[in-house]
Design brief:
Blueprint: E1 15-21, E2 28-40, H1 43-47, H2 57-70, H3 76-90, E3 94-104, E4 106-111, E5 114-122, E6 127-135, E7 138-152, E8 177-187, H4 195-212, H5 218-232, E9 236-245, E10 248-250, E11 265-267, E12 273-280
Antiparallel strand pairs: 1-2, 2-3, 3-6, 4-5, 6-7, 7-8, 8-9, 9-12, 10-11
Helix pairs in contact: 2-3, 4-5
The structure holds uric acid.
Length: 285
């Protein structure tokens, strides 16, 4: 029985690229973590140790920095596509290049209510993401948000569920619903568009739907958020969510002679429910 090389890819992970635009006194900042990977026919490198077709991961990292200057970072998607296309071109044995980007947002520091020109404060929490893939058969862009922590203090129930001899969970008519949401949405094509505007609008829709939808379960909330995004954005083919159910349990205050009508909770760490769903268009399964 022969032994052969299976799927493989290689690249530089988590290159931290910070780009300042300083053409005017009012600076702009983009703060990224960039991971690149090439795939293709790299058999000689693995089997014989032949590096002649290997574009070093160090070069991939250098290209990420050079493109931050020469191409600029109008959006993670636009930058990622340019970088992936360049890497594919630079490595003749490659058939595909993937660029994954995480973006960390910075806000201007407010001084007397006015945003400062060149002093920023890191916005905590959520991370903007994109993964672009460029290959001989075309380009694909999947963008997203992660670590978007949201909570609603009412407007959520979980009841009427299947019960067996191991079920102890009581029906909940009014519970806290909280999650650290990760969403990724796949664009139908990679044509140039205002990627930043779509990102902002998807974020707004997801948050507004979370807030305003009465939730019978996290599953139903995810479906509602996905439907709102697909209804508003024809350029998005599908959207996937991963949502840990951050359980909040009512604390028993009876031993202290106190009532607790949905006011004091313990925020549990682990375990957590993990609810995941993709919402897509009928014609795309
Ligand atoms: O929204 C929820 N979905 C579930 O599937 C589930 N299961 C559970 O124990 N609590 C919850 N909550």
């Amino acid at each position: 029985m022969g032994i052969v090389l299976g799927p493989n890819q290689y690249g530089k992970a988590e290159t931290r690229v910070v780009r300042i635009v300083r053409d005017t006194p009012r600076h702009e900042i983009r703060d990224l973590s960039v991971s690149t990977a090439l795939r293709g026919d790299f058999t000689a490198a693995h089997v014989e140790g032949d590096q002649s077709q290997v574009l070093p991961t160090d070069t991939q990292k250098n290209t990420a920095f050079a493109f931050a200057k020469s191409h600029g970072i109008a959006s993670p998607e636009d930058y990622g596509l340019a970088l992936a296309r360049r890497l594919l071109e630079a490595a003749p044995s490659a058939t595909g290049a993937t660029v994954r980007v995480e973006e960390y947002a910075w806000d201007r520091i407010l001084v007397d209510g006015v945003g400062h020109d060149h002093a920023f404060v890191r916005r905590g929490g959520e991370v903007r993401t994109t993964e672009v893939d460029v290959s001989t058969s075309g380009a694909q862009v999947t963008s997203g948000i992660k670590d978007l922590v949201v909570l609603k203090s009412t407007g959520s129930e979980f009841k009427g569920f299947l019960r067996d001899e191991y079920t102890t969970l009581p029906d909940a008519d009014d519970r806290i619903l909280a999650t650290s949401l990760a969403a990724t949405w796949r664009y139908a094509d990679a044509v140039e568009r205002d990627w930043n505007a779509v990102h902002d609008d998807v974020r707004t829709l997801v948050l507004a739907t979370f807030a305003t939808t009465y939730s019978r379960a996290l599953q139903q909330t995810l479906h509602a958020m996905g439907s709102a995004v697909l209804e508003a954005h024809g350029e998005i083919a599908e959207i996937s969510f991963s949502a840990p159910n951050k359980h909040h349990f009512l604390v028993d205050l009876e031993p202290f002679g106190l009532e607790n009508p949905g006011e004091v909770f313990i925020a549990a760490d682990r375990p957590y429910g993990l609810i995941e769903a993709t919402v897509c268009r009928e014609d795309q399964g």
